[in-house]
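Structure tokens please, single chain.
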Amino acid sequence: MTTLTQIAVPFHNAELYVVEYEGQPYTPMKTIVEGMGLDWKSQFVKLKQRFAQGMVEITIPTNSGLQTMLCLLLRKLPAWLYSIHSNKVKPELRDTVIMYQNECDDVLWDYWTKGQAINKRHTVSPEQKSILQEVVERKAGDQRALRAQIWTRHNRHFNINSYHELLAIHFDDAVKYLEEMEVKGKIAQTSFELLAADTTNKVMDYYSALHREIKRLGGKAPDSPEFDEDTLVRATVTRMVQGSRMMLSIGYDNNPTVSFVPNNSWILSSDNIAQVIGDPCGPKKELLPEIIQAAVKRLSK
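Here you go.
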């Protein structure tokens, strides 16, 4: 947690905030939620569950003194706004919810880009970009996929879409981060997670931009689709384990561990060893003579 300068943003009968944190704009969510007339406790849980990657706690000076507030990355705000189904809130709140959905993110963004914070948003120079590129090229060599993964990790670390958006004040940190990044083994192990996060961010950014354009043209953006989370979880788990075998073990620290059993491996016991060997899907036929010899040798002792 940290204390930072913020921009107070008047919005109808409320006062919202935009806070610069690590070069990115964030907004405290409680004032927005309560301004819409929604229940903060339920929205707090929703934010923690669905928008965890864009959330951070920031200590902000207010008229009542320093307050630690849960803040959402400003570019993620439209996705949260349109996760509220205006046709499902109390009738007396509907107009207010729609007003926030239509205006809130644009007002905050205008204050961030055109207000007093604009002078702080100086990005890296062409020379600094070249230095960053040289570091990445040296680490990745001619491996294009590896180079892309390094940039993805860099951009995620600094909460930006591209290294072109890196603030100059973070240039030294970026060089150090890239220089110290472990790329052997670790990249391969996390490539799926990086791809998933990068894809999610791109989809959310496109979703936000699409809704902005619809509003600019005077149209009404549709409500976000509803998903049955339990069904999604079951379907995902089923897909994960389909065709695979898993083993659950409990360690001495009482922590459970789930591991996949390779398709060419078997868990043997005194009761099933003969069945496994005799199974057509069991060990390769080429191994059966060795198994027979081992059994004969054992019986002769």
